[in-house]
Amino acid sequence: MAKMLGWVNERWQRELEPVLRTTTVEQEAQLREVWERELQWWKNQRGLSGDSLRNPITQVRHLIGELELREENSWENPRNGKREHIGLRVINLAEGEWVQMNDRSRAITQERLNQTQLVHGAV
Fold it and tell me: Which domain holds residue 37?
């Protein structure tokens, strides 16, 4: 993983990790409220939107993956059949937002490929 952004690490330690360490599956709704407030802070205070959310969210999700799994704080992800911390179900963007970001990235890449010109026979 890329180097952890300083502000992400600070927010993790101060705002997210203390909540996620004690959250249970039954508290998913409250955890969603915490995440919505945090995401709004990222957008308003850090000025993040769209693709700029990708790395910080990925970094936080990596940190969640390092938390201790217990019966009361984990669920079985039907996509991969593995037990995961409830935070991984909550701390994310909607699938449609990821799709939009990935579509924009693909479009930018395709545009660059379309503009690439090969040089033939240069001697």
Answer: 26-108
